[in-house]
Amino acid sequence: MQMPRTLVSLAVLVHLSPTWAQLAPVNEMGLSMGHIHLAAPDREKEAKAWLALGGQLENNLSGNIPIGFPGIVVLIARDRPVSGGSEGSLIDHVACRVPNLEAALAKWKGVETWWKGGNWGLKIDSGSKPGQAFVTTPAGTKCEILEDKSLRIPIVFDHVHYFPDESRMREMEDFYTKMFGAKPVKGESDTLGMPGGKLMFTKSTTPTAGTAGRSLDHIGFNMMNADVLKAFAATLQKRERSSIGPMKAPPWG
């Protein structure tokens, strides 16, 4: 079974700053939220947009630009064209929480006063309910911003939001539950909790595209150590041997 890139990559993430991009302690399966992998025609511009939102530049262990937020790392790949933003794809958007939405929006709108060339393409839209707004980055990745007055830090990662069609939504939820130890969130329908964030699922009434070629390429999970990664890979291989055909993949790939 070849896992679809729209869903997940796995890595042991180390050397992250303990004061900011601290990943959550892993669950009983040795996993936590890890990263969001982005593509952009101009990754310097994309990186500055995420820094403006409150991320911090982390140690660069690869060819990606790592922007850290509490609970997640945003990895921006080398410059390449994108066919579209995240909206309309399987992963429609990601979300963060801030303690004061009005103040945060005012600060992001004011970026143009100290970075020449405007606010690096940040597009701000109001939400459909109080305490909600949306920010779209230059490459087209949509980020929902939610107000959480109890928050004591400027910004924190909250969730990844999937929009599958009804026929595959339940299978996706079961997959993350069984393979990654995600657990239902009390009081939130079709929402699974992972250390560091949530996976939310909303039935799409229209067909959604895969994420390949889009600005939001895939999400990644952090593994506790190399031994956990090896054990997880063995589990995937076992599933592949029991599947029908060597290239059988979940139907949402």
Give a description of the structure.
This protein has 253 residues and is of the alpha/beta class. It has one domain (9-242): 2,3-Dihydroxybiphenyl 1,2-Dioxygenase, domain 1. 21% of the residues lie in helices and 28% in strands. The chain is built from four helices and 14 strands. It has helices spanning 43-53, 101-109, 166-180, 226-242, and strands spanning 9-11, 31-38, 56-57, 65-69, 72-76, 91-98, 123-126, 132-136, 142-147, 156-162, 183-184, 191-194, 197-201, 216-223. An eight-stranded mixed sheet has the order 7-8-9-6-10-13-12-11, covered by helices on one side. Strands 1-14-2-5-4-3 form a six-stranded mixed sheet. The longest helix is centred in the last third of the chain and has 17 residues, at 226-242. The chain is globular, with a radius of gyration of 18 Å.
Write the layout of secondary structure elements.
Layout: E1 9-11, E2 31-38, H1 43-53, E3 56-57, E4 65-69, E5 72-76, E6 91-98, H2 101-109, E7 123-126, E8 132-136, E9 142-147, E10 156-162, H3 166-180, E11 183-184, E12 191-194, E13 197-201, E14 216-223, H4 226-242
Parallel strand pairs: 1-14, 2-5, 6-9, 10-13
Antiparallel strand pairs: 2-14, 3-4, 4-5, 6-10, 7-8, 8-9, 11-12, 12-13
Q: Report the CATH architecture.
A: Roll
Radius of gyration: 18 Å
CATH superfamily, called what?
A: 2,3-Dihydroxybiphenyl 1,2-Dioxygenase, domain 1
Structural class: alpha/beta
Number of strands: 14
Helix proportion range: 10-25%
> For the terminal residues, how far apart are their CA atoms?
11 Å
Principal-axis shape:
globular
Order of helices and strands: EEHEEEEHEEEEHEEEEH
Using the coordinates above, name the CATH class. Alpha Beta
Estimate what percentage of residues fall within beta strands.
25-35%
If you average the pLDDT, what whole number results? 83
The CATH topology is given as: 2,3-Dihydroxybiphenyl 1,2-Dioxygenase, domain 1
Low-confidence stretches: 1-7, 12-19, 112-116, 244-253
Instruction: Summarize the biggest pleated sheet.
Output: 8 strands, mixed
Discrete helix count: 4
| Total domain units | 1
Q: Going across the biggest sheet, name each strand in turn.
A: 7-8-9-6-10-13-12-11
